[in-house]
Amino acid sequence: CVVFMGFFLGMEKLVACLYQRPNALCRLICFPWAGGGTSQLAQWGKLFSSSIEVSSVRLPGRESRLKEPFAKDMTTVVNEITSVLLKELQEKPFAFFGHSFGSYISFAVALHLKEKYGLEPIHLFVSGAHAPHSEAFLPIKSIPIYDAEDEDILTYIQILGGTPSELLQNEDIKKHLILTFREDLRVLQTFSFEKAERNIPFSCDITCFDGSEDKPHDLEAWHDLTSGDISFYKLPGGHFYLLEPSNEIFLTKHITRCIENAGL
């Protein structure tokens, strides 16, 4: 039983699932943005039908994992997520949703699952992100996070939006947010994906969402990454368009339809 307890604690630590649905046909695993925790996406559980169980991934250094050191690189993040979730993902179909930084993590995890275990999501939903092998992704890798002042990082966080301004009034919260964002960006900069000439990594469908007012992302290049169908949706708003209740309703309805049409 010790093994089971270890597995259970690993799950509890890594994943927030507020609305458990043991009989769901499919699991939707959500991956939050840089500096983010599980609070918003884990709440999506209540918006989905009983056929879909939603959970949100929690990286070290935040929420209940506050005392743990931040992950040092993408490989560490991918290995932890895969080792904790593998058993669950082998049991029943799953889909991934990631926003921004979370899109890159979800892609890296999906790639690892495919290459090492022959498992892939029935659908990959990415939001606010370039295709990972796109030229457009490169500038992110050159943001000088080591030298960046807290103030510069704070400005960047404010430009992106998505953080309630009252949180930024609190010195401790602000400091921790800047630190978390900096560390997440550092992880993102360790991620690289070179697409091999004739190798198409996935066969699942991919849906790309973006905010209409956000700086444009290279979505077209996602075409190279799957032999499945690919579709694009622009929703009104900036980088954090997905926090608008009307967009949230569109996203959850659309994701439900895609999953239910996957013929589970």
UniProtKB/TrEMBL annotation:
Residues 27-247 form the Thioesterase domain. GO terms for molecular function: fatty acyl-[ACP] hydrolase activity. Keywords: Fatty acid biosynthesis, Fatty acid metabolism, Hydrolase, Lipid biosynthesis, Lipid metabolism. It catalyses: (9Z)-octadecenoyl-[ACP] + H2O = (9Z)-octadecenoate + holo-[ACP] + H(+). Gene3D superfamilies: alpha/beta hydrolase. It is an enzyme of class 3 (hydrolase). InterPro entries: AB_hydrolase_fold, TEII, Thioesterase. GO terms for biological process: medium-chain fatty acid biosynthetic process. It holds the Pfam family Thioesterase. Its EC number is 3.1.2.14. Belongs to the thioesterase family. This is S-acyl fatty acid synthase thioesterase, medium chain. It comes from Spheniscus mendiculus (Galapagos penguin). The gene is SAST_ANAPL.
